Amino acid sequence: MKKFEISVLDLAPVRQNKTIHDTFNDSLELARFAEKLDYKRFWLAEHHNMASIASSATSVLIGFIANGTEKIRVGSGGIMLPNHSSLVIAEQFGTLESLFPNRIDLGVGRAPGTDGLTAKALGRNPMNINQHFPQQIHELQKYFSVENSESLVRAIPGEGCDIPIYILGSSTDSAWLAAELGLPYAFAGHFAPELMAAAFEIYRENYKPSNHFPKPYIIACVNGIAAETDQEANKLATTLYQAFINIIRNDRKPYSPPVDDMDEVWNPMEKAHVLNMLRYRFVGSKESVKKEIDQFQKLFRVDELMITSHIYENEARLKSYEIFRNAVDELNDSLL
């Protein structure tokens, strides 16, 4: 096992009986807390038409978080690139990088981040996404380059900005692409764990070094819920389970508070489906999650672990991230 970084993925969760304004303030509080704990980065994810997630205007929210923090890297995990013009994203992230130098990451994915009808409203063309997505990444790299100053179409701000691009994915297709382009790779293990092992193997074995990234770099995003005791963490985790049940039932309502007995909420088939989607999750006390992370790292050997926490009360969410920081520090210290 090797030493690894730890980061945050925030979905800007909207809770029952809370406003979106509350959500954004909670996200900022979390980002400041993560910065204090020396987390590597704080990413926000683009989703649409979901009453439980408020990060649809991802670039705007990144600016809000970056403006309220001082040193932590802030970025997208990710921008769903086929929803947008490459030029517009280059300008938006060029603006962010100009405002907050050396702190902005651009993670990009090809999924819609929503349902089919909303994807259509976003102007996506499903017939050319697989072909157009790699092309858009090349367009971003061109717009960010100093050499593009001679072009008739320029990204200003954006041109000459050193903004690292990360490929996001939940399948092996994204692994092949990230390896071919010589870019860092972030896998969505928090909701699509089935192909994670295969994707990492493909990425490592086929990686082509690039100027900015001479070696492969892997981020694994995993659900994590920690508390003082296993019992408390397991109860907090029922908010996560209910969120996944809502996805299965196509019920987009805000996140629910924890419950005492999930068997009163889900049926056996739903339970099996949810737990399969969440097969890689860290839930428990510090000692419990430390053992789970240790086992995960021995299996996957990632460079960075990105934790996303579906916890109803923000105070408990902050405590969870503190426990994860301590658990990871202890694991890394043991490798010295």
TrEMBL record:
Domain of life (superkingdom): Bacteria
Signal sequence interval, chain numbering: none
Gene Ontology molecular function, alphabetical: oxidoreductase activity, acting on paired donors, with incorporation or reduction of molecular oxygen
Ranges of residues in domain Luciferase-like: 20-299
GO CC annotations, alphabetized: cytosol
Listed transmembrane segments: none
Similarity section: To bacterial alkanal monooxygenase alpha and beta chains.
Name the UniProt record assigns to this protein: Luciferase-like monooxygenase
Organism listed in the record: Kaistella flava (ex Peng et al. 2021)
